[in-house]
Amino acid sequence: MSERKAVGVETIGMTMRFGGFTALDAVSVKVPAGSFHALLGENGAGKSTLVKCMMGFYHPTSGDMLVDGREVKIASPKDASALGLGMVYQHFTLVPSLTGAENLVISREKVPGIIDWRKERGDLGVFMERMPFKLPLDVKVAELAAGEKQKLEIIKQLYLGRSFLVLDEPTSVLTPGEAQEVLGLVRDMTKAGDLTVLMISHKFHEVTAFADDVSVLRKGKLTGTGRVADLDHKAMAAMMIGDQPIAALDSRAAPKPDAEIVLKVKSLKAPDRTGLKSIRIEDLGVRSGEIVGIAGISGNGQKEFLEVLAGQRPRDAGEVLVRGSAYAATRAEARALHVRLIPEEPLKNACAPKMTVAENISFRTFDIDGNGRPISWISAGAIRAFSARLVEQFKVKTASLSSPIASLSGGNVQRAVLARELTGEVDLLIVSNPCFGLDFSAVAEIRARIMKARNAGAAVLLMSEDLDELLELSDRIFVMSDGALVYETPIAQASVQTIGEHMAGHH
Amino acid sequence: MDATEIGLWGVPLAILGGAIRVSTPFIFVSLGEAITERSGRINLGLEGTLVFGAMTAYGVAVMTNSPWLGLLAAALAGLCFGLFHGWICKFRGVNDIAIGIALMLFGSGLAFFFGKPFIKPKAPNLPAISFGGWSDIPQVQAALDVNVLFLIGAVLSVILWWAFRNTRAGLIVRVVGDSSDAARAMGLNPDTVRLLATGVGGALAGIGGAYLSLYYPGSWTERISSGQGLMAVALVIFARWNPLGCFAAALLFGGAGALGPALQSVGVTQGYYLFYAAPYILTLIIMIATSSPTRSLAGAPGELSITK
Asked: Which among A40, A70, A72, A36 has a CA at the least distance from the CA of A54?
């Protein structure tokens, strides 16, 4: 491997049209060699389209690319890698069942027919000594923590001799501590002139802490660019979202410490997805009028816990009580005890994607009349009237009530599910990652709805991988690590540092 | 066979001999299926390939008087079946399991159609190597008459086990089987890799078929396979996609298959038919014991349609 040297990259008037839709409109971004450049923007603002054009996945409709000041044609990802451009994806591209060393070697351009592992290990050892990250390479990737995987992705790019890296939301799966470490190390490499980085992000604090320059996209247009040092969060937010109104969070009604405990979980034990480990919830109580947040890195049992509460996963032992009566998540119990559920990825987990918006919105109520008695004839008219009212009330944007719900955007699917789950009496609301992948205004609105439900007296259990969201909404925060609740803190004393350490299992 | 001389010792001895004899087609079919499944695709059609391979091998051996040419022809026929499966499955919306079932019926039907003239004539058999010369007991000698294909299969399973870790081709098959996205990001075409893996799997299944008609039972009949190709697919799952595991599991199944004849040979006259069902019952028991409603299979290739 030759000596690495950072390259500078520049796009000039990059435009990408998909049919009549302009995803990217004459975007010019300059990333000088050895700099750390942030690319900000909401979902659908064109960030991915821009980098995919740069990496040769898309062929831009018009526009040019310069690498180190020379015009280049990039027709395929292969051309990009030949020029030393590489990308670290948001979703891991490592092969889980292969070890780190196997992943590195097989991703190389030229792999010998028979791999001499002794020689390869030696070479890798020499290579790793020059790397800022220390990693076990003989462990299957599936067994690495998310932070280690992310480091391995970056190392892979460096191993392949790339000197310009696009990082696509690199910290979305990391704990705050891991994020600091990974970005810090990457930043040191840019400072040393070994690497140029273009980081896609929507976290302002990361941009401020690590990037030199920032470019902001909105609806496919470049709306601002500049030195990070000259911009504050407000200025960046204004470039990012323009002047759309943002729903304000209700002020938090004072919590009542003696309010009724609505959800009680006692010595719960259930197998996790692999069946090799189990999740154990010793004691968890959620009172009426409070939001209890559960933090944790994905894969530490939150999903299984939610599935147990939702009745999708059998439990080995323990009790789930709602208002003192045993709760097994049958439809009748959920109805009688006013339990509502908003799982993550609602289109997949809470909707029948090909059924209409109206039908999806009436899943809870289509078979009962106004007084809660079962009916024997289902009235299409009543379903339409009911859902028309909710669509109006929750501002669900849909072409019509009879469109399949899968045709809605992510934010509108979530609004429709919220409409269904938050209508009527709600005593217990169980929510998981409600804002994942949604844009700014939808996020603000959905958080406001959850806060409103809390203030109206619902007990809310909120599981989220987004620590900022938990800090904003919760009254108490638990940390889930390795299948158990390992830490509890009231919001007033919560510190990101301590929560992060517990998430990483360092206690 | 006079079993009374060595009494009940005949049973384990017959099981051992039977295990070696019966397991050989299992070894080839399951190794082939292991390659295919490691690349992320299931080929249930191997049952049909096995039967067609048996017919082809027998037919060619009868016509050329060379069992080795028969074996080669069976491998080529299997390769064609595998490539056909792999080619169809690359199209969008095609289900590999459904195509596999179709090819299973197609392969058997085609074999019956072309195989009619070969039911009568006698083909030369594949050679065996005798490891029983040290003993005077005929049963021991019989049990240790080991067919060359069994030895090749044993060596092949070790080679495959090694190759999955130490060769470019092996790693590429594992990459494609575990993550299509990662494979594409590396510039590999998953369809091509799977096409080749299915082709090789088919060729091995064809060899398994040649063993059936050219060594044991050693003649071509329409009921020659009786579902061994399907059992071999189950066996791959039981072996957790590990070639060495496939070899061990094939021996276990072979031993179970030899239980009925072994009991019969020592003079058990009643109920031994029940023991002919042993491999099938073993399949059921293993599938029940190794699966669970709440947990996914450890070691399963991530792209396999049944584990997704």
From this structure: A72
From the list B167, B181, B186, the residue facing A113 with the nearest CB is B167
Total number of domains in chain B: 1
Contact A96 B186 (CB under 8 A): no
Query: Which of B186, B242, B290, B303 to substitute to test the interface with A, most A CBs within 10 Å?
Result: B186
ipTM for this prediction: 0.84
Q: Say how far apart CA A219 and CA B119 lie, in whole Å.
A: 73
Distance, C-alpha B244 to centroid of its chain: 14
CATH number for the domain that contains residue B67: 1.10.3470
Q: Which two tokens stand for residue A150?
A: 């992310």
Is residue B239 one of the residues assigned to a domain?
Answer: yes
What's the predicted TM-score (pTM) here?
Answer: 0.77
Cα–Cα distance measured from residue A45 to residue A218, given in angstroms and rounded to the nearest whole number: 5
Give the number of other Cβ atoms within 10 Å of residue A469's Cβ: 21
Average the pLDDT over each of A197-206, A245-254, A330-339, B117-126 and give the range with the smallest value: A245-254
> Radius of gyration over alpha carbons of chain B, in Å?
20
- 3-state secondary structure string across A247-286: CCCCCCCCCCCCCCEEEEEEEEEEECCCCCCEEEEEEEEE
Q: Residues B234-243: pLDDT tens digits?
A: 889 888 899 9
Name the fold adopted by A259-338+426-507.
Rossmann fold (3.40.50)
Say if CB A215 and CB A38 are below 8 A apart: yes
Q: Which residues fall within 8 angstroms of residue B7, CB to CB, at 6 or more apart?
A: B266
Beta bridge partners of residue A459, listed in sequence order = A428
d(C-alpha A195, C-alpha A158), whole Å: 9
The chain B residue lying nearest A270, using CA atoms, is B294
DSSP state of A151: H
Q: Please give the structure tokens belonging to residue A66.
A: 């310069």
Contact, B45 vs B98, CB < 8 A? Answer: no
- Identify which of A312, A288, A301, A307 has the alpha carbon closest to the alpha carbon of residue A428: A288
Cβ atoms of residues B254 and B49 within 8 Å: no
pLDDT in tens, B258-296: 888 788 877 777 877 788 888 788 878 877 877 766 566
Residue B291 DSSP one-character state? -
Residue A406 has φ and ψ, to the nearest 5°, of -65, -20
- Residue the block writes with tokens 């008459």: B145
Q: Which residues of A sit within 8 Å Cβ distance of B? A: 77-78, 89, 91, 93-98, 102, 105-107, 111-115, 117, 271, 273-276, 313-314
Owning domain of residue B53:
7-289
What is the residue extent of each domain of chain A? 9-241, 259-338+426-507, 356-424
Three-state DSSP state, A107: coil
